[in-house]
Design brief:
Layout: H1 2-9, H2 30-40, H3 48-54, H4 67-83, H5 86-94, E1 99-101, E2 113-115, H6 133-143, E3 150-153, E4 160-164, E5 167-171, E6 185-193, E7 196-204, H7 208-216, H8 223-229
Parallel strand pairs: 2-3, 3-5
Antiparallel strand pairs: 1-2, 4-5, 6-7
Length: 239
């Protein structure tokens, strides 16, 4: 996250930064991540991991492909749940499910950017690139989106973009724990003006080996370090 914020800091004309949730899980820094976001005043929404940790749910709401993946996901959740401090837990519990942003202000016509983690109903729904146009159209209708609006979401940790009915659908990927085979962090840069909306996926290199060492030095499974190094390919735990 430090590398991504540093990259953003080098850019001119950045008006706002938002996060799309999943601030905790699979890494040994849940409190540090939340503390940094609060220190920088970066608003955002609740991912499935955040809301389940905050509400003492029985598991993270993750989807696992194998029995081993299921076991690892429970280990991660139990470790995270037991290591978040009260302030972190309170913050996670206060994160909204959805956030609507009007870049030009509420009194000026212009696009609305809607932030959700999964879809418009649940933060555990995977909006993958192979979803049909009809699925996305229903998502937009339920959200109340119109042509030229933007819907941003995450959860799959795989970045992609598509325009359906004049609405931009943007999966922002993941700052941590990517799943598209690229070990670099990923964030999205939205540029909005009178000419329209431009979407840029930005990949940022960081010290993956250092992150892996921190995981290996914690009580978390070593598989989580291997996952980072492979960009999510190889030993896979779906979240």
């Amino acid at each position: 996250m430090f590398a991504v914020l540093a990259d953003i800091g080098k850019r001119a004309n950045i008006d706002a930064i938002y996060h799309l949730g999943d601030l905790t899980g699979y890494a040994p820094w849940p409190n540090e991540v939340v503390s940094l976001l609060r220190e920088r005043g970066i608003p955002g929404i609740a991912g499935n991991y955040d809301s389940t940790v905050a509400t003492d749910y029985k598991h993270c709401g993750c989807r696992a492909e194998t029995a081993q993946d299921e076991e690892l996901s429970h280990i991660s959740f139990e470790w995270t749940h037991s290591h978040v401090n009260p302030e972190t837990k309170k913050y996670l519990g206060m994160l909204p499910f959805r956030l609507d942003v009007r870049p030009f202000g509420g009194h000026v016509s212009g696009p609305t950017i809607t932030l959700v983690h999964g879809n418009q109903t649940l933060n555990t729904v995977y909006v993958t690139e192979d979803r049909s146009d009809s699925f996305l159209e229903k998502m937009a209708k339920d959200i109340g989106a119109r042509a030229e609006d933007v819907i941003c979401f995450g959860h799959t940790h795989k970045p992609w973009q598509r325009v359906v009915g004049g609405i931009q659908f943007v999966n922002t990927g993941s700052v941590g724990r990517p799943k598209d085979g690229d070990p670099r962090a990923c964030y999205v840069l939205l540029s909005i003006d009178a000419s329209g909306t431009r979407v840029e996926f930005v990949r940022v290199e960081y010290d993956v080996d250092e992150a892996g060492r921190a995981i290996r030095n914690s009580e978390l499974p070593h598989e989580f370090a291997d996952f980072l190094r492979g960009g999510g390919l190889g030993s896979v735990v779906a979240r």
